Amino acid sequence: MSFADLELDDMPDWPWAPQVLVALLLLILVLVAGTFFVVKPALDELEHYKQQELELKQTLSRVAKKAALLPLMQAQLNELNSHYDFLLQQLPEQKELASLLAAMNEEGLNNDLTFTRIDWGKRVSQDFLLKLPLDIELTGSYNNIGDYAQSIAQLPRIILLENAEWQRVSQESSTLHFRVRAYTYQFKQGEKKQE
């Protein structure tokens, strides 16, 4: 009997070998279909979950490191806040500008300097600060000018000296004509109120 003589309707009457062969072919076909439609998607999903697990472990590791550093960061934040408050106290308020100018003038007089000019320039607006320029021109000895600059640095408010120029009053004289632009800063009123 050949396979060509076998009909599917009479399968139960087939000899044992062809029945086993057809059963094996059906089994292989079911296994291939099961692998393609069931196992492969399940393996892909498993791989996706493994990747997701790895990403979550990395995220957890980063968060754990940040949590471990939290007390140190809190201490640094507290230190920065106290430094910020200290610097804030060194910025003059509007009502203090006249007394600041008077203190700078007094320091110059205490150091035997003669002022030819001391006045405020035009305010410059920056991010959250106002930059207040102060033009100063004076005459005196080199040491007295140095002492004056040191005494300005010791005032309780922040004052920066920039663009300093000096020259002798005359060729024979040791007296210098000193010109400098000083700056102090103020918080803009809107920014200060928001704190």
From TrEMBL:
Pfam families according to UniProt: PilO
Species classification: Bacteria, Pseudomonadati, Pseudomonadota, Gammaproteobacteria, Vibrionales
Official protein name in the record: Type 4a pilus biogenesis protein PilO
Name of the gene encoding the protein in the UniProt record: pilO
Keywords: Membrane, Transmembrane, Transmembrane helix
A GO biological process held by the record: type IV pilus assembly
Superkingdom of the organism of origin: Bacteria
Transmembrane segments: 20-39
